Amino acid sequence: MEGRMTRIFLCLFLCFLAGIATNDAARQGDALNKLYFDVFNLKRAAPASAATSASNVFSDLSSKAYPQKGLKESDKISKLPGQPEGIDFDQYGGYVTVDAEAGRALFYYFTEAVSDDPSSKPLVLWLNGGPGCSSLGYGAMEELGPFRVMSDGKTLFRNPYAWNTVANVLFLESPAGVGFSYSNTTSDYGENGDSRTAEDSYVFLVNWMDRFPEYKGRDFFIAGESYAGHYVPQLAHTILQHNNTHINLKGIMIGNGAINDETDNKGLCDYLWTHALISDETIDAIHKYCNFSPDASNQTNQCYQAVGVVNQVFDTLDIYNIYAPLCFSSGVTPSPKRYSIENFDPCSDYYVSAYLNSAQVQEALHANVTKLNYTWSACRQFAQWTDSPSTVLPLIKECMANDVRVWVYSGDVDGRIPVTSSRYSLNQLNLSVKTKWQPWFVNKEVGGYSIIYDGNLTFVTVRGAGHEVPSYQALRALVLIKFFLDGKLLPA
Amino acid sequence: MEGRMTRIFLCLFLCFLAGIATNDAARQGDALNKLYFDVFNLKRAAPASAATSASNVFSDLSSKAYPQKGLKESDKISKLPGQPEGIDFDQYGGYVTVDAEAGRALFYYFTEAVSDDPSSKPLVLWLNGGPGCSSLGYGAMEELGPFRVMSDGKTLFRNPYAWNTVANVLFLESPAGVGFSYSNTTSDYGENGDSRTAEDSYVFLVNWMDRFPEYKGRDFFIAGESYAGHYVPQLAHTILQHNNTHINLKGIMIGNGAINDETDNKGLCDYLWTHALISDETIDAIHKYCNFSPDASNQTNQCYQAVGVVNQVFDTLDIYNIYAPLCFSSGVTPSPKRYSIENFDPCSDYYVSAYLNSAQVQEALHANVTKLNYTWSACRQFAQWTDSPSTVLPLIKECMANDVRVWVYSGDVDGRIPVTSSRYSLNQLNLSVKTKWQPWFVNKEVGGYSIIYDGNLTFVTVRGAGHEVPSYQALRALVLIKFFLDGKLLPA
Known about the structure:
Two copies of one chain form a homodimer.
Chain A: H1 2-28, H2 50-53, H3 71-75, E1 91-99, E2 104-111, E3 123-127, H4 135-143, E4 147-149, E5 156-158, E6 168-172, E7 182-183, H5 187-190, H6 194-211, E8 219-225, H7 228-242, E9 248-255, H8 261-274, H9 280-289, H10 301-316, H11 348-356, H12 359-365, H13 393-401, E10 405-411, H14 419-427, E11 433-442, E12 445-453, E13 457-462, H15 469-472, H16 474-486
Parallel strand pairs in A: 3-6, 3-8, 8-9, 9-10, 10-13
Antiparallel strand pairs in A: 1-2, 2-6, 2-7, 4-5, 11-12, 12-13
Helix pairs in contact in A: 1-10, 4-11, 6-7, 7-13, 8-9, 8-14, 9-10
GO molecular function, one term (chains A, B): serine-type carboxypeptidase activity
Protein name (chains A, B): Carboxypeptidase
Organism (chains A, B): Elaeis guineensis var. tenera
């Protein structure tokens, strides 16, 4: 009964936030809405608890290793349409089958390191969240990839702070149904969830490493943001459980990630209050009348009313960067506008969508080979997300116990999964402080703050960055990934 | 004894913050540092309390009304060096003697409204804080005046969001010793304080209205920021007490203002924590060990240590806009840089200083007629600030009781006198909510939030604005002043 009440509450709570999604999507364009809207709106299969999330029993996935011969060569991208001259790294794009029987295949885009010797650099897998958002559209094209799309939707400009300056970066569109990834079994789109996402991603990795055998045993890191706060530790967990020696997992990094629903939700509300987006009366009501525990029941009308005010905030400003301008343009421009890597263009979603829906671009990427009956879009809203534990903290602990480096970071002007949430959630681990809270610096400016806990967990803030940290603070994000990969203290 | 302990504590507390001032000043240039550094570092004449601040007995100031004949005409500015063509309003600059015996004279810069009929527009007096900062350098040249200074320090560009599009705006450099204002009695510089600042400002106004008699009886408003949180209500109080019919005081407006030390200080610390600039441990120590009450004694070492961390934040980033870049250039550029009213240039202090220290500019402004033996600087640090009550809330109440419109606003990314402080301080008034907290809009974007309390007090936030609101959000600030002057609800 309690479990049912919880689900009803969460459902209603997120009817508000789903309403948000709808409104905002309508405002920003359905195909391009920037909302990782499902964090609260999950249909939980069962009242999930910390205890259940690390104890999954895994299927035998060995049958899903498929022949990869010759595929690497055919995945090589000779040139992306509109890319600038003088590109000094190799790029690949293509599909990896993760379930031949169902016809599930995941699309990847891979940018080798800019280096005389890419083999000296680690491999980083990047995952965007959602659930349902694209690592190609967001991660590669708006955040940390080597190119960003100009306002004409046709030409690319170089991102000098791309992460492939320090690593070989693999962008995965996951799970099937997201971006160019697909399933030939339509019902797969209706039954996605965390577990299959982790399993498919694991199978992807095993096959991808057969296709790119030089990366077997290479130092390997998983990074991602938002709902990838689930994907990243769940994939790490799957890797650890399967004990695959080819996958040399060294660390995971989660940015503005959903990691513990109760404290994430509480932190969200507190952040909105402390950032002067809701009133004293509203936060008082939330503190008094709402219970964000996964086992909560009997929420009051006062709670619903207060949560309705949170709804209004989501509806009126860009919650993913509470100080950013909105996009009001209806689409791409005939000729490219002046751009600046320092001032993220809030209309970038439109440019990326135009670019990735071009037939020439898809051909160059080796994408959409099955001629999907829908256009590429940045986020897909799955009808059902069948499983999502209320916390991944046990998986983070598991990583720590297995000597996997864990960094959690937060762009501090994101209101969706704000720095307050991440602090509250990590505090649930009750770790001792090893290196106290202190600023780190880039070009003599405070890049943010960091604190290191016993057990090799580092928490980092990125000053002035929204939900998609590298979109808003590209240089600071590059410093972050560099020091994460090196396992070093950020520059003081 | 308690009073003494308080002063010792405040003194030590502000030895930290004074250290800040020194460091930051050294970094940004002594003459141009942007610190309104004295808020905490006040030497109080006596333990001030709410009760004392509204009960001053006023001197008879009528003897300080001096002949003004012919002075208006000679104050008219024909043209400022480097100003753009097509200026459609009149400007004046000059001195008003406020104490003939001591030789104290205050410098003003007056920009009439851009209008076919300036006489239809109200009169707004603008005051910057400090104590010791210039309304000409900050208010007029970096915030709400008609011109801003280009990076060459020689040419001006038009501010399309200047407040003289809606009002006749009078900038006063106050008290004597600030900017071009001076005293021939050197000891005046050592004995400044709130009371004399209010009295001199009142005398200034009386004389200025004799010089500009068309403004007698005109709707009159006082606005100011930072430590002008003291000046504004104190001047309003002085006007109310003197019952001068020429000064038709309709409203006051205070931005990011010091209004109640205890809650301002608590709010500052909480803001730094909620904005992820200090650690959980530090805020816990501050909450546990510090007592910001004006009557507090026996502060602990733990409190001093925690406050030392606050010090470090002030020392490492621009506390006046916690997300803004710093200025690293050593001065003006040979030719003017591209400018944008939307992206405030953090090096503007240098351009303004160069401009205002030019002999031609001073001549055009009718400034520095006595050939001061120091250069114009944006802020002057007085050796002693002899009186400063710990709260001006009783004066705000007095305004409300006398039907003087009161608006308090806050740029929400200022860390110096942050929105948290203003909310805590206003909450001390225990007012009922008349119109609940809601967003206001400019060009379909959230300009901030507002709440109206019974008794005609409005609190407004300005989203994405630092301490000097019109510097960072010029358009939003213009909407703010327009609706304040009209006494209307901000646009929903």
